[in-house]
Amino acid sequence: MKRFFISFSVCLFCLLSACSGDSSASETISTYSFGEDTIPALEQVMTEQSGGRLTAVLSPESTAGDDAGTDDGNAERTDSAGNEADATSPYIAYDYQQFTEYQTGPVVRSYVDLLTGEAIALQPEEKPDDSVYTQPVGSILLTRQAVMDGATSANSEGENTGDGEATSYASLPHDPELLFRVRIDWTPTSCLVTLDHVAGQDFGNSLLTAGSALSFSTAKDLLNTVSPEEIGLPGSSMSEYSLKPGPGFVEVDHTACLTIYVYQKNAAGTNSLVETYFISSDGSTLYRQTGTEPNQVEKITLSGGHTSQAASSDREPTE
């Protein structure tokens, strides 16, 4: 997955360089907006020591006027007007160049700290350790539930502070089916910040509905509809195994999943643990644990579609 991100980032950097041409940037922006989501811009953590300047603002609908550089002689601008994309744009990307060599890592670290604070509430896909920011090239993906369509327009314009601080994320309604993503890619002297939306739920929202969507008895019934071979177990029938509940719901692939321990019955009348499985809260996806952490898993595809069919018929009503 990380290799894919780095390869994609290199391609996108090349695309941005080709599109931005020779224009020079003179403006500074304080926030980015994508649809109803607004976050602080990278400029808020850039310093004189780090260097760096915005060279292009790109989206699929970009025109010549979208380049960060302008020829009208304006010295500086401190708002986000003209640098936002509506929900119909697949993405919007901010391309920064001319950083002091190897200062991009510290800048990205400060930016991630800002975005993952309580006010902005973005969460990293994988929590990075400090060594990530010492690498000359890297990529970090942050997500949160998107702000509900129309939410910000319902507030008065005065709710933004004017100094680049957006309205608190917690005070706005969220779209339970849409994720807002911020991807940050960097090289020794450049940084690319890309915003987009993708269908899905973060773990917090997934957990809110998990208890009413799937109980242990329902999960047990789901597993008893498959053959051991389908889920990587020996034997001819699931009756050879005993299923026990794990420690409630855990996060797997950004989704709340119920933990199921599978024990093999033996002649001595005792059970031995053979596998640990995770079933998504909607009963549509099954994972088998391959390591010691919940996210070290293998996604299991059931040939007969047992999981999806059982989930639609056995789901308990939401209170």
Mean pLDDT, nearest integer?
Answer: 74
Total helical segments: 5
What is the helical fraction, as a range of percent?
10-25%
Number of strands: 14
The sequence of SSEs as H and E is HEEEEEHEEEEHHEEEEEH
**Helix-strand category:** alpha+beta
End-to-end separation: 38 Å
Strand content: 25-35%
Shape estimate: elongated
Count of distinct structural domains: 2
Strand order in space, largest sheet: 3-5-9-8-7-6
Largest sheet: 6 strands, antiparallel
Radius of gyration: 24 Å
Which stretches are low in confidence, meaning pLDDT under 50 for 5 or more residues running?
A: 1-10, 12-26, 69-82, 156-164, 304-319
Summarize the structure in short.
This protein has 319 residues and is of the alpha+beta class. It has five helices and 14 strands. A six-stranded antiparallel beta sheet has the order 3-5-9-8-7-6, sandwiched between helices. Strands 10-11-12-13-14 form a five-stranded antiparallel beta sheet.
Describe the overall structure.
- The protein has 319 residues and is α+β, with helices and mostly antiparallel strands.
- It folds into 2 domains: 2-200, no CATH class; 206-314, no CATH class.
- The chain is 18% helix and 32% strand.
- The chain is built from 5 helices and 14 strands.
- Strands 3-5-9-8-7-6 form a 6-stranded antiparallel beta sheet, sandwiched between helices.
- The two termini are 38 Å apart.
- Keywords: Signal.
- Residues 1-25 form the signal peptide.
- Residues 57-86, 150-170, 289-319 are annotated as: Disordered.
